[in-house]
TrEMBL record:
Keyword Protease: no
Family from the record: Belongs to the UPF0718 family.
Transmembrane helix as UniProt keyword: yes
Name of the molecule in the record: Permease
Transmembrane segments: 12-31, 43-68, 88-110, 122-145, 151-174, 217-235, 241-263, 270-290, 310-329
Location(s) in or outside the cell: Cell membrane
Membrane topology: Multi-pass membrane protein
PANTHER family: UPF0718 PROTEIN YCGR (PTHR34184:SF4)
Source species: Metabacillus herbersteinensis
Record keywords: Cell membrane, Membrane, Transmembrane, Transmembrane helix
Primary location recorded for the protein, binned into one broad class: membrane
InterPro entries: DUF318, UPF0718
Domain of life: Bacteria
């Protein structure tokens, strides 16, 4: 009985701390008696700007995602997919452009789709494409890069092409062999959870899903925004400029940042925009494409739901494909 109360207690503490932070920042006048370091004030400003810009898109994304999760069945999606394995790659990528699902929720959704009969490689296309191609991510990216719209269209174009390429490569390696990792306890727990949500009705179920996703994504947004703020405030700018000036190493560095920061795809554009003055456009694009496809929190979820060999090959394919695509884009179009 105490286990469900522990996560709730942690969430309440997080909300209380965030509320205290905003209250102190907005309403408490420090005055002349306390000298606050300029770097700390700069950190607060950067952190709040990232969070406040991203929250509306987070709210929109989790609400629409919750509606889809409650009212759209996996079988309905499956009926629209062609039977031919290669032909199914294109509509799978287009399907990812319709549903506003970020990478925070995409792994369990793809797992459910595959369990209901979706081919593995089609699930891979949806896994890497949907978190970037969906309309909420496009809107947030456009808002964050209004003065550099080429980054917006490069992100969407590369994500669309790469999702098909990655899906094709994974099909050639695994065909349609089952790569899911299920346990009896997991299946029983999932069925009971779904039955519990059905009992409360679809509207309440939608609200429950939306609130859960908001707090889940909000944690990663706050952590990522704070780390980005720390980088921007305390890291020597000459170091960043040196790292970001090399056309071959800077995309790899920003891909590593994207993996570690584990930002929600509906908000990562605001963090990426804060690096715009120190990293090249190609590096920013690498950050925006790679992060939603593969990050630290996603990796843990993938290892939990899929076989280790599949996950390791998937990570290698995604990393190489994104890096090569960004380098080619940089050499040809930038």
């Amino acid at each position: 009985m105490n286990k469900p109360a522990i996560p709730l207690f942690k969430e309440l503490i997080a909300v209380a701390l965030l509320g205290l932070f905003f209250y102190l920042f907005l309403f408490i006048d420090i005055g002349d008696s306390v000298e606050v370091p300029k770097s700390f004030l700069n950190l607060n400003t950067i952190f709040l700007s990232i969070v406040l810009e991203a929250i509306p898109f987070i709210l929109l994304g989790v609400f629409v995602s919750a509606l889809i999760q409650t009212f759209v069945s996996e079988e309905a999606i499956q009926r629209f997919l062609p039977k031919n394995a290669i032909v199914a790659l294109l509509p799978a990528a287009l399907l990812g452009a319709i549903f506003p699902i970020c990478e925070c929720a995409i792994v369990p959704i793809v797992r459910r789709l595959i369990k209901k009969g979706m081919p593995l490689h089609v699930g891979v296309v949806f896994l890497v494409g949907a978190p970037i191609l969906n309309p909420v991510v496009f809107a947030s990216t456009y808002y964050a890069f209004q003065s550099s719209t080429e980054i917006v269209y490069a992100r969407m174009g590369l994500a669309f092409v790469l999702s098909i390429v990655i899906g094709f490569i994974m099909y050639m390696i695994f065909k349609n062999r089952d790569q899911l990792k299920w346990s009896k306890e997991e299946l029983v727990g999932r069925v009971k959870a779904e039955e519990g949500l059905k009992d409360v009705g679809k509207i309440k179920s939608t609200l429950f899903h939306a609130s859960d996703e908001f707090f889940e994504m909000g944690k990663y947004l706050l952590i990522g925004a704070f780390i980005a703020s720390l980088f921007q405030t305390f890291l020597d700018r000459s170091v960043l400029i040196g790292l970001g000036s090399n056309e071959f190493s800077s995309p790899a560095i920003m891909m590593a940042f994207a993996f570690i920061l584990s930002l929600c795809s509906e908000a990562d554009a605001f963090v990426a925009a804060s690096f715009g003055s120190t990293f090249s456009a190609a590096s920013i694009i690498a950050f925006l494409v790679y992060g939603p496809m593969l990050d630290l929190k996603n990796a843990f979820m993938l290892f939990a739901f899929f076989r280790a060999k599949f996950v390791l090959i998937f990570m290698l394919v995604v990393t190489v494909a994104v890096y090569v695509a960004v380098i080619l884009y940089q050499q040809i179009l930038l």
